């Protein structure tokens, strides 16, 4: 799972994120600041993650063997916990 944060947008790295996710077939969830890091209609787009995230994105994060966090600080609003994730 890739968690894309606001740094993807601020760093203008959306195209690189998309290419990486597509090449490796990795689904992408977004923090609130990372909204639109991947187009909403992209097949690998899971939507928001965290406290206000989608059930699908949060469930996949809970089951993921590996989480690649890009452009995010993984604060408790994103993780839903200040000690887990």
Summarize the structure in words.
With 85 residues, the protein is an alpha/beta fold. The protein has a domain at 1-54. It is 34% helix and 15% strand. It has a 4-stranded parallel beta sheet. The mean pLDDT is 90.
Number of strands: 4
Number of helices: 4
- Main sheet overview: 4 strands, parallel
As a whole number of angstroms, the C-alpha radius of gyration is: 11 Å
Sheet-strand content, in percent, reads: 15-25%
Q: What separation lies between the terminal Cα atoms? A: 12 Å
Strand order of the largest sheet: 3-2-1-4
H/E element string? Answer: EHHEEHEH
How is the secondary structure organized here?
Elements: E1 2-4, H1 6-10, H2 14-24, E2 28-30, E3 45-48, H3 55-63, E4 68-70, H4 76-79
Parallel strand pairs: 1-2, 1-4, 2-3
Name a few traits of the molecule.
4 helices, 4-stranded parallel β-sheet
Task: Give a short summary of the structure.
This protein has 85 residues and is of the alpha/beta class. The chain is built from 4 helices and 4 strands; from the N terminus they run βααββαβα. It has a domain of 54 residues.
